[in-house]
Amino acid sequence: MVEQCTVLEVKVIEGHGTTIDVVLVNCVLHEGDQIVVCGLQASINLGPIVTTIRALLTPHPMKELRVKGTYVHHKEIKAAQGIKITAQGLEHAIAGTALHVTEPDDDIEAMKEQAMEDMESVLSRIDKSGEGVYVQASTLGSLEALLEFLKSPAVKILISGIGIGLVHKTDIFNVHPSTFKFTERSL
């Protein structure tokens, strides 16, 4: 069976650290399972995140996943529901990408490549010359939509770099040199 689990949001929850909200469609997750998700660090370093699930959390019955408060801990969760996962190293996970669950006999390197396919298709659309604007979006889907719009014949804006997630100081430094070089294209 092919697992289907999508990362919806990456956020820091007090008392839990960085968590990912996911929609689990057709597999089973256990505390202690090893997972692989797509990661992007400082808008430069692209790489998969391999980590172990520390906790599987769901909101109390009749509550939303987005609402702050206490959560119900689970040792195992079966599909089709929204869950919150806590694990080490999720700070740079990318919302909108797939989460892959590894089995003991799985090839981890192949799983890493599979996890990065979504992001690599987006990166292939970027002009490598260094000319153009820097585009930042909250999720991979939002980024893809922005890139399609900016490359459309009506707009035709060059893109020199991308980022996903909150805007950080390093993102501003990535943009800064291009504003001096191409003042007619800067915002």
Automatic annotation (TrEMBL):
**Which Gene3D superfamilies does the entry mention?**
Translation factors (2.40.30.10), Translation initiation factor IF- 2, domain 3 (3.40.50.10050)
Q: Which GO terms describe its molecular function?
A: GTP binding
One Pfam family from the record: IF-2
**Per its UniProt entry, which superkingdom is the organism in?**
Eukaryota
Q: Where is the Translation initiation factor IF- domain?
A: 110-174
Q: Which UniProt keywords apply?
A: GTP-binding, Nucleotide-binding
- Name-wise, this protein is (rape) hypothetical protein
Upper lineage: Eukaryota, Viridiplantae, Streptophyta, Embryophyta, Tracheophyta
